[in-house]
């Protein structure tokens, strides 16, 4: 998920105050307002990485978590982490959430609201944490932290050790979707305990950024572009971008758990999702691809204001409940 500044806070709250907010006409106005803002937002290469991160953190003020969700901060070794616990949960259901931010930004704070809505929809505890970010900590530092957090989840008696493969959903958005897929590939390749299912939201899983949708959707995508993504990829690593743990689409997914992929019709990353779907199907996996009409990168982030985000999260919740029973 990329930049959201205080401008969008004022813009969106003005829409909320309108009593016609939930009418389809107003919803179209909200989409237009979000598109207009996203097309004019600064990027990390114009304001610098630190300012970019700060703006993302400040923007999170407009997206507060649901008040019914309990937030419990702690550490996994050196990794800041947080449990999000809705009032109604299944003890056998845990979401392992990897936040997005282009490998260079994002945090628990920036994604707490989105994660809380997903936890509520799934009636599940959700673990969110902060992996090390590039360029200070290039590949494989972030992925190492993701692996550490996952191993902690399955080894520290958080779950019934005889049942954890039936209890965990690995989930991530954008670059967090890429890290989630890389983790899943390692689990499969090393014969580690598999999760019950996985969900990828607008995943960035091919850092070479040469798929056709980068060209076809360059005028439609209000948030991402091939040029900036390629610069971001080089901040993440100076290694071969086709490396299967850097661009995890280049893995063998035989034996993979069920996967749900949601992507916006207007995204430059649309082909990442489509090509991964084909690869998963060829590997014999149960995969569901949803291409959401008129939607942009990780539109779920705006679920407080956008009905499409609310509906997408509801589907996510049902998918998790279907694959991880009480």
Task: Describe the structure in your own words.
By secondary structure, the protein is of the alpha/beta class. The protein has a single domain (6-323), classed as Rossmann fold (3-Layer(aba) Sandwich), CATH 3.40.50. Helices cover 41% and strands 14% of the residues. It is built from eleven helices and eight strands. It has helices at 6-16, 24-40, 44-47, 49-59, 108-122, 141-155, 175-189, 213-216, 226-236, 270-282, 307-323, and strands at 70-76, 79-85, 94-98, 125-129, 168-173, 197-201, 259-264, 287-292. An eight-stranded mixed sheet has the order 1-2-4-3-5-6-7-8, sandwiched between helices. It is globular. The two termini are 31 Å apart. Residues 1-26 have low confidence and may be disordered.
Count of individual beta strands? 8
The CATH H-level superfamily is Alpha/Beta hydrolase fold, catalytic domain
Number of helices: 11
- Please bin the fraction of helical residues: 40-55%
Shape: globular
Mean pLDDT: 87
CATH class term: Alpha Beta
Span between termini: 31 Å
Task: Present the secondary structure layout.
Blueprint: H1 6-16, H2 24-40, H3 44-47, H4 49-59, E1 70-76, E2 79-85, E3 94-98, H5 108-122, E4 125-129, H6 141-155, E5 168-173, H7 175-189, E6 197-201, H8 213-216, H9 226-236, E7 259-264, H10 270-282, E8 287-292, H11 307-323
Parallel strand pairs: 3-4, 3-5, 5-6, 6-7, 7-8
Antiparallel strand pairs: 1-2, 2-4
Helix pairs in contact: 1-2, 5-11, 6-7
